[in-house]
Structure prediction request, 309 residues.
Amino acid sequence: MPLTPTEKIWMDGELVDWADAKVHVLTHTMHYGSGVFEGIRAYPTSRGVSVFRLRDHIKRLFSSAKVFMIDIPYTVDQLVDAARTVVRVNELVDGCYVRPLVYLGYGEMGLNPMPCPVNVSIAAWPWGTYLGDEGVANGVRVKISSWRRHDPNAVPTAAKGTGMYVNSSLAKVEAVKAGYDEAILLAPDGNVSECTGENLFIVDHGRLITPHTSDAGALWGITQQSVEAIAHDLGYAVSHEQLIRSDLYTADEAFLTGTAAEIVPIRAVDDRLVGDGRPGPITKRLQETYFSAVRGEVDQYKDWLDHVD
Ligand SMILES: Cc1ncc(COP(=O)(O)O)c(C=O)c1O
Prediction:
């Protein structure tokens, strides 16, 4: 999806013009994928624009950095404030996507990243539905990828490390070229892991099942956690279990969750319709509640909102 430039990007404490937010070609992270990042969304609410679970995302950024032994030269509070500032100064009142990035900068080369300077940027821009409005409304067609998810002992799948996303890109390209909307990756042991940038759930006889994130080598998604909380509150049982690919073919409903994608029904897996190929009632109920929660329309979930003004 093409980027819509906004006015300013926060770079190491300064607000820089969008067009000037550049780095040197010898930036360490460009060569070795040695950064960590987050993806966050802000939504319009009756009290103005609000960032969804901002502090949880910034905390996960620090946790990813810890795994890679990167010392972020700011506190959680400072980056929460910086993210809010970026949304405010760019007047993104209708909501936006926010992308904090911690990268190892210019000045050192080679595979020992420890002497590198640590830089931080936060950009924000208006971003529509990641998998398309049609996907959100009627569901997407997904393919089990021929690429496996990372072995967590090869790269730490609990972290959002920039270089790790070549795996997601390989799977996405394969799926799109084959005519699908998204890919599902299996873990090295053959169990279902996650999508390229989303977690997934199935509904089986009224019960929600999502792969156990650490066993499956998947990121523990903040949207996944929000959906679990909403599902519990609506009275649905949720469990983390191992899933195999045929569980996806025989599920009553299936959907994926992620900050960028939000909640998207899966209408077919490997050309087998999920249920009758239309978004199921539980998926729709969770989707509706989630979209109301992020817009501040459900009192119970107001703690998840971080107002910008
Ligand atoms: C690989 C991967 N899995 C799952 C997710 C979903 O996580 P969240 O709901 O926190 O955005 C993301 C997005 O950050 C991701 O990149």
Observations:
- The first helix runs from residue 28 to 32.
- The mean pLDDT is 97.
